[in-house]
TrEMBL record:
<dbReference type="InterPro" id="IPR003593">
    <property type="entry name" value="AAA+_ATPase"/>
</dbReference>
<feature type="domain" description="ABC transporter">
    <location>
        <begin position="9"/>
        <end position="229"/>
    </location>
</feature>
<dbReference type="InterPro" id="IPR015854">
    <property type="entry name" value="ABC_transpr_LolD-like"/>
</dbReference>
<keyword id="KW-0813">Transport</keyword>
<dbReference type="GO" id="GO:0022857">
    <property type="term" value="F:transmembrane transporter activity"/>
</dbReference>
<keyword id="KW-0067">ATP-binding</keyword>
<dbReference type="Pfam" id="PF00005">
    <property type="entry name" value="ABC_tran"/>
</dbReference>
<dbReference type="InterPro" id="IPR027417">
    <property type="entry name" value="P-loop_NTPase"/>
</dbReference>
<dbReference type="GO" id="GO:0005524">
    <property type="term" value="F:ATP binding"/>
</dbReference>
<dbReference type="GO" id="GO:0005886">
    <property type="term" value="C:plasma membrane"/>
</dbReference>
<dbReference type="InterPro" id="IPR017911">
    <property type="entry name" value="MacB-like_ATP-bd"/>
</dbReference>
<keyword id="KW-0547">Nucleotide-binding</keyword>
<protein>
    <submittedName>
        <fullName>ABC transporter ATP-binding protein</fullName>
    </submittedName>
</protein>
<dbReference type="GO" id="GO:0016887">
    <property type="term" value="F:ATP hydrolysis activity"/>
</dbReference>
<dbReference type="InterPro" id="IPR003439">
    <property type="entry name" value="ABC_transporter-like_ATP-bd"/>
</dbReference>
Length: 229
């Protein structure tokens, strides 16, 4: 496929079946550098499957995904893992922090996995934790912090490698609305200042309100709301 002009990541005609279930049935997507796009839709509509395909975690049965001018399907496994390690960041609903590590070690982890020396990695990690207002938690373990604090630590970790795309799947799904709003404010501010694009999966309109644009998924089919309106 030819990706839409200026897009960083785009997908067309994605199909993915799990047995008899068509998780994706002709989904499309596109995002520009630095843009925040909300992927909306009811539970079971295919949002997470779309995110996993876009991030190269799940291989679609058919369709095309282009990242930075290159088809994901033509990349080697090594190149796709390198993308996930250095150019993509991830925030999930919960359970993503390593319980044995301190918060600063958790945030520094993606840099350590890329070979950055510990001191340097933790310095960068701490700068991101300051931005997300969780630097005072540096020595605590995930079990000792609140849900909202844990998600802010996870957001810091998703940004620590200066990724070009952050994939966030229901990042506020386990939080009350006040903590959810704060996480969204800090996530979108930090991502915008770093010019990282954000693929934000959510079923909540008040979370999607932080995006620049919305894509709606229903029964595995997605629609760019701007093109519909
Ligand atoms: N690994 C899987 N194995 C089997 N079925 C799956 C798997 N992942 C997703 N599905 C099914 O695909 C559909 C879409 O799921 P999902 O993408 O998780 O939706 P959403 O994130 O919008 O809730 C659902 O019917 C779900 O049960
Ligand atoms: Mg989901």
């Amino acid at each position: 496929m030819t990706a839409p002009a200026g897009s960083l990541l785009a997908a067309e005609n994605l199909r993915k079946a799990y047995g008899p279930t068509m998780a994706l049935d002709g989904a499309e997507f596109s995002i520009h550098p630095g843009e925040v796009v909300a992927v909306m839709g009811p539970s079971g509509s295919g949002k997470s499957t779309l995110l996993h395909c876009l991030a190269g975690i799940v291989t679609p049965d058919s369709g095309s995904i282009v990242y930075d001018g290159q088809e994901l399907a033509t990349m080697s496994d090594a190149r796709r893992s390198a993308l996930r390690r250095s150019e993509f960041g991830f925030v999930f609903q919960f359970g993503q922090l390593v319980p044995e590590l301190t918060c600063v070690e958790n945030v520094a982890l993606p840099l350590r996995l890329n070979g950055t020396p510990r001191k340097q990695a933790e310095r960068t990690a701490l700068a991101w934790m300051e931005r997300l207002e969780v630097d005072d938690l540096r020595k605590k373990r995930p079990g000792e912090v609140s849900g909202g604090q844990g998600q802010r630590v996870a957001v810091a970790r998703s940004l620590v490698t200066s990724p070009r795309v952050v994939f966030a799947d229901e990042p506020t799904g386990a939080l009350d609305s006040l903590n959810g709003e704060r996480v969204m404010e800090l996530l979108t501010e930090a991502a915008r200042s770093a010019n990282a694009a954000v693929v934000l999966v959510t079923h909540e309109a008040r979370v999607a309100a932080y995006s620049d644009r919305e894509i709606v998924v229903r029964d595995g089919k997605s629609r760019d709301m701007e093109r519909v309106i």
